[in-house]
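User: Please predict the structure of the protein below. I'd like the answer in structure-token form so I can feed it into my own downstream comparison script.

Assistant: Understood. Taking the following sequence of 390 residues as input:
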Amino acid sequence: MKKNLILVLALLLVIGSLAGCGGATPTEETPTEVKIGINYELSGAVASYGEASVNGILMAFDEINAAGGVNGMQIVPVKLDNKSDAAEATSLATRLMVQEGVVAVLGPATSGNYMATIPVATENQIPIISASATADKGVTVDAAGKVNDFVFRLCFNDSFQGVTMANFASNNLSAKNAVIIQDKSSDYAEGLAKNFVTTFEASGGTIVAQEGYVGKDKDFNAILTSIRNKDFDVIFLPGYYQEAGLVIKQARDLGITAPILGADGFDSPVLLELAGAKALNDVYFSNHYSSLDQDPMVQNFIKAYTEKYGVEPNAFNALGYDLGMYVADAIKRAGSVDPVAIKDALADTQGFAGVTGTFSMGADHNPIKSIVVIGLKDGVQTTSVKVDPK
């Protein structure tokens, strides 16, 4: 009996010593895949932005996986549709972080939907990144001026766009008088208009009228008739393509020929569908990317995207592609699937070369990068002017 007891104790000691010699358990093994959440507007009012962004993201992930993945791990995208709704975006962010086990979440595309997910990211300490949430306030920095640790974006903000287009009106078009027609229901439009007005007036320009509409309006003839006989050189139209296309068409139908300026919200094939090619002359908008850029990286991206999807990419496709590459680069540099380590790598980014430009991540989690102003002729992008940050 005593001999058997001694044998059992000896066996237990051997097992214990093996366990203490670094034998990896299944939970300690290097993972073979990494999950990344995709929380985008794939249906609803701004589905054009979401679909375009996701196509770019998935193209980036496909290229990375085909080349061996990130640190030997294959990227597994978990794609969900927030239906262009802020409440749904919040719910999906929770699902992705709590149930799906993602290490980062990409999107949503629009500022309002993206900001709705910030509390979820902060609570769960999982980074979120948007390539197109341009609002000045409430995104990467909170109301008290504190940086949101787990929140990043790849795009410039509305201030930069508003300032750029005001300077373009004054310097490139020699405009002295301007009319503003803006979406009064949109924080995006409000931020753009405010910065355009401040900069345009500081350069000696005059705002002769400032009119408003509400998102989803269809008839703008009353507004356009009220401004038609005023003395102005340009119209600044901050808003999204759904209304902008109709405003531009109706303005041209009324004989208003002045240049019309906008921002990245114009960048959608639907703008051409709504306005028609004939109306889209002397139309200019700020954007993150131009297909006219002869940089080999840009031209190779255009070729690859066109081969994959059968159409040439727009700025949201390019931003999505850069977003996919950026998060993968951060995971690689972090050398870990720990969300906090990935967050730190995102913040430490220097000289990231993307299709939409080379950038370093600023201390406020906004990228330091250039902007382009694109000109349309018969609805086709024919000119682009690059403006560097000051």
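That's the full token string. The CA atoms of residues 140 and 309 lie 32 Å apart.
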